[in-house]
Amino acid sequence: MNAVDTRSVSRAGSRRYAELTTEQVGDALSRDSILVLPTGAIEPHGPHLPLATDLIVAEAVAEAVVERGAAAGYDVWLLPALGYTKSDEHSRLPGTIWLRATTLFETIVDIGASLAQTPARRVLFLNAHGGNSALIEVAARELRRRFDLQTFFSSGPGHPGPTERGLGIHAGWAETSMMLHLRPDLVYMDKAVATVADAVADATHVGFAGTVRFGWLSTDFAESGVIGDPTGADASTGAKLFDERVDALVAALPEIATFDPGRVGR
């Protein structure tokens, strides 16, 4: 375990990177520090959830991972979240704020270049928006190649609900349950409507996880953009899903802190 030096904690005990002074950065961070970058989105989540759903979830999970990780003795730091990301699959719905894929890619590269100027060499992207996943995976390799950073990313496992036929992709059972746990004041369950993608579920080969993938927009499935069934969501399920995600990431910190691909004879 990488024990946390008392110098690495700010005066108030904060583990937030942006709350350090420029003088503290050199003392607080080392090659073993893990910088956690939450990535969310600002996009429609049906009539029952806020635009910031993915951002709220990403920030909450990342904050809990850093808090629990630091308490367990790991040198983890929370970076400010990225809220404006690749959400153009929802661009036909009002409220979406998105970056082009090339813009987000270059933004991540620029952030990596900046972080490479600090002593830290390990960055964990903690993503809560599926539309970012492929791009972050490519960007993570770019940061590895260009700046010699050890990069890691997690988008979390899918949790389709019992009525979603394996396709709770957007604003469905799991996401709504998570928001009922984190921010019930922003959830309007009286407006929740099920939109199960039966045509996709019935397909043998083409699907979100099929042998053949497909390009899609959220409005291909329903006018609301919902892909799932939020009607059975509840806060207790959300708390369980939240804790499972946080626990899994905290359990991964020992490997993230020491990971090396292990090529012999370098």
Supply database-style keywords.
single chain, about 270 residues, alpha/beta, about 35% helix, globular
Could you characterize the architecture of this molecule?
This protein has 266 residues and is an alpha/beta fold. The chain contains 7 helices and 4 strands. It has helices at residues 22-28, 53-71, 101-115, 133-147, 173-182, 198-202, 235-258, and strands spanning 34-39, 76-78, 122-127, 150-154. Strands 2-1-3-4 form a 4-stranded parallel beta sheet, with helices on both faces. Helix 4 (133-147) links the parallel strand 3 (122-127) and strand 4 (150-154).
Distance between the termini: 25 Å
- Based on CA atoms alone, the radius of gyration comes out at 19 Å
- What is the tally of helical segments? 7
Shape: globular
Biggest β-sheet strands, sense, barrel: 4 strands, parallel
* Total strands: 4
Structural class: alpha/beta
Give the % helix.
25-40%
Q: H/E series, N to C?
A: HEHEHEHEHHH
Mean of residue pLDDT values:
93
Note poorly predicted spans: 1-8
Query: β content, as a range?
Result: 5-15%
Widest beta sheet: strand line-up: 2-1-3-4
Lay out the secondary structure:
Elements: H1 22-28, E1 34-39, H2 53-71, E2 76-78, H3 101-115, E3 122-127, H4 133-147, E4 150-154, H5 173-182, H6 198-202, H7 235-258
Helix pairs in contact: 2-5, 2-7, 3-4, 5-7
